[in-house]
Amino acid sequence: MLLAGQAKAQYEERVLQPRERAVFGMKAGVNRSNVWDENGQDFKAQAKTGFAGGIFVSIPLVPYIGIQPELMISQKGYQSTGVFLGAPYADVRTTTYLDIPILLAFKPSPYFSILLGPQYSYLIHQKDQTSFGSASSTTEQEFRNDNVRKNIFGLTGGADLNIKHIVL
Q1: Is-contact 161 167, C-beta < 8 A?
Q2: Which residue from 4, 94, 112, 116 puts its CA 20 to 30 A from 56's CA?
Q3: Domain range spanning residue 13?
Q4: With a cut of 70, which residues of the chain have pLDDT below it?
Q5: Does the reported pTM lie above 0.85?
């Protein structure tokens, strides 16, 4: 009886910390984007807000480091105004991308992560709304994306705050 009690006392079931287990989830939010270069003579650009959402999986490698691949739909674009041939114009461009980031997650605490990694963005839809003088038009382009220059390869990063079953 004494031996059985000692064996039971030394066995403890280990509960995994949030940063030590794989987590699947969904993301939803907003994107704020703009054009980088506005060197045109009478070109003024303003930022545009769009939807961003998708799925992710957080895979632990060791307790403090993991990877987090994601699959996101992201609306980006800009609004611009200017003057062309003496007439004012306004333009709104909305582009929809399939974003595929593969992030390295550094987890200094069980409830906080710092994310950084490469992202490939594939253009799937583009919509332009233009008004020139008193006339306006809307163009939605249905196209096959065969041109690699329409896609974006870059670096992205962020931070996650984990509160029970919610990640901010």
Answers
A1: yes
A2: 94
A3: 2-167
A4: 1-18, 36-42, 136, 138-149
A5: no
